[in-house]
Amino acid sequence: MKLAFIGIGNVGFALANNLQKKNHEIFIAHNDTKSESVINAQKRNSTFKALPIQEAIEVADVIFLATPFKANEEILKPLNFKRKTLVDCTNPVGGGISHGLESKVSGAEKVQDWSANANVVKSFTIYGFENLENSTFPNYNVKPIMMIAGNNDDSKKQVGLLNSDLGFDTLDTGNLSQSLHLEHMTLLWVKMVRANGHHPNFTWAYLER
Length: 209
Ligand SMILES: NC(=O)c1ccc[n+]([C@@H]2O[C@H](COP(=O)([O-])OP(=O)(O)OC[C@H]3O[C@@H](n4cnc5c(N)ncnc54)[C@H](OP(=O)(O)O)[C@@H]3O)[C@@H](O)[C@H]2O)c1
Known about the structure:
The chain is of the alpha/beta class and 209 residues long. It is 36% helix and 19% strand. Strands 3-2-1-4-5-8-9-10 form an eight-stranded mixed beta sheet, with helices on both faces. A two-stranded antiparallel ribbon has the order 6-7.
């Protein structure tokens, strides 16, 4: 697939780099295509092309959003997503590792409100970037689970394929409003690892009898 990344930092680069190795074509979407972040990412993976954001959306099959949550409204409102899949990898995090929207609504639903004609799917948020760089667990015979949420089944199927390429099993948790619960799972992971000293290379697994 052709994949556009708005945001190519810790999360965006880890996903883009691993998906490029699975033969996807990567476009960094940035209105300053000569910015330091874009140049740095291209130094690390010279196959990445860069385009202004709306142009990247035009060529992409799927668009990833991996930016600081507070930047999202300004980035998204001018864009037209042409009914394409927008993967929301962002998390609204508030003071003391709390939910940045006071748990009243998910960040993903706000992203949907700000994104004309996008099919938003929440994914890749429930772990730190370490598990997006490397999702292998050679000592176990189950794959780590990636929980997703969204309102459009075709878009969720697309994200499921990308999850598989990244080494995850997909668990569809339901419609986009489920993202609020996923964002709380993120906070749980972040508090455990970043505040309480758990190892960052741990994930959740789905076991069903
Ligand atoms: N870090 C984690 O472990 C982790 C895990 C899962 C989810 N998340 C979530 O993922 C998101 C990104 O986190 P991160 O750690 O990857 O952040 P990061 O390393 O700071 O990267 C942020 C990226 O967003 C870009 N960006 C900011 N404003 C932009 C704009 N107006 N247009 C285009 N690009 C813009 C930055 O590029 P410039 O510098 O050029 O602006 C940079 O490439 C956050 O919402 C975070 O909560 C983080």
